[in-house]
């Protein structure tokens, strides 16, 4: 029987969309992509081994034409690779569309799906849409509430940081008087107030002195001495 070869280019159909039931092929670990990839790698490995053996044989028989042989084989290999890719693309599409195609009406049911009704009615779809809308509303409200909580948390966090800074400053100011043996602030302020009142009375008392009988050149010195006397008395009183 004589084998005949055709020179007609194979017709390639337009790619079709991925079918729903083709997922079963992946579940059964029978991926067309893996099988075809292995076949393509095997065909290329076989082709390169043949080319390598042919080049060695021709170079051995005609060593003086090694360069011409290598150039011719490189050109042939380039054309053969292009043709191999074209033919394999056609073969890959044929296998995907015919050999590996699973009928659309294939009824395959797993054990865990026996009690599940996959016949979904229009009302079921509407109920699922309503549930999804309700969930979206709840999620939106949760996001808004989370934003409010985050803002409030950051606000309180900044307030706590300011309070901590003020507490450190207060502790620092409270520690200084104890280290320097400074009197209580309230007592000190009362003492200052009392001294101011005493000083005011001393000024009034000195100012009310009648110095008309003294010569003008002695009046200023007299008032200064009286005022100094009052200041000394206040100073002695404050040290008691």
UniProtKB/TrEMBL annotation:
Coiled coil listed as a keyword: yes
Gene Ontology CC: one annotated term: nucleus
Domain of life: Eukaryota
A Pfam family per the record: Mis12
GO biological process assignments: cell division; kinetochore assembly; mitotic sister chromatid segregation
Compartments where found: Chromosome, Centromere, Kinetochore
Entry-linked InterPro entries: Centromere_Mis12 (IPR008685)
Coiled-coil stretches noted in the UniProt entry, renumbered to this chain: 118-145
Keywords: Cell cycle, Cell division, Centromere, Chromosome, Coiled coil, Kinetochore, Mitosis
Similarity-based family: Belongs to the mis12 family.
Listed PANTHER family: PROTEIN MIS12 HOMOLOG
Name of the protein described by the UniProt record: Protein MIS12 homolog
Protein source organism: Mucor circinelloides f. circinelloides (strain 1006PhL) (Mucormycosis agent)
The organism's taxonomic lineage, starting at the top: Eukaryota, Fungi, Fungi incertae sedis, Mucoromycota, Mucoromycotina
């Amino acid at each position: 029987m004589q084998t005949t070869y055709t020179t007609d280019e194979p017709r390639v159909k337009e790619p079709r969309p991925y079918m729903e039931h083709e997922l079963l092929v992946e579940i059964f670990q029978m991926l067309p992509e893996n099988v075809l990839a292995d076949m393509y790698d095997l065909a290329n490995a076989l082709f390169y081994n043949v080319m390598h053996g042919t080049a060695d044989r021709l170079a051995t028989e005609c060593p003086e034409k090694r360069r011409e042989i290598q150039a011719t084989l490189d050109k042939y290999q380039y054309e053969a690779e292009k043709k191999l890719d074209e033919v394999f693309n056609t073969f890959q599409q044929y296998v995907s569309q015919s050999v590996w195609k699973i009928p659309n009406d294939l009824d395959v049911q797993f054990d865990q799906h026996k009690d599940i009704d996959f016949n979904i009615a229009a009302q079921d779809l509407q109920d699922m849409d309503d549930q999804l809308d309700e969930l979206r509303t709840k999620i939106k409200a949760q996001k808004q509430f989370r934003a409010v909580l985050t803002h409030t948390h950051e606000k309180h966090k900044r307030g706590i940081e300011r309070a901590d800074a003020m507490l450190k400053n207060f502790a620092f100011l409270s520690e200084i008087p104890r280290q320097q043996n400074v009197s209580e602030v309230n007592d000190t302020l009362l003492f200052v107030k009392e001294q101011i009142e005493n000083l005011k009375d001393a000024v009034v008392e000195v100012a009310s002195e009648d110095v008309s009988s003294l010569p003008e050149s002695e009046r200023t010195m007299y008032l200064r001495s009286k005022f100094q006397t009052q200041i000394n008395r206040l100073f002695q009183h404050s040290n008691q």
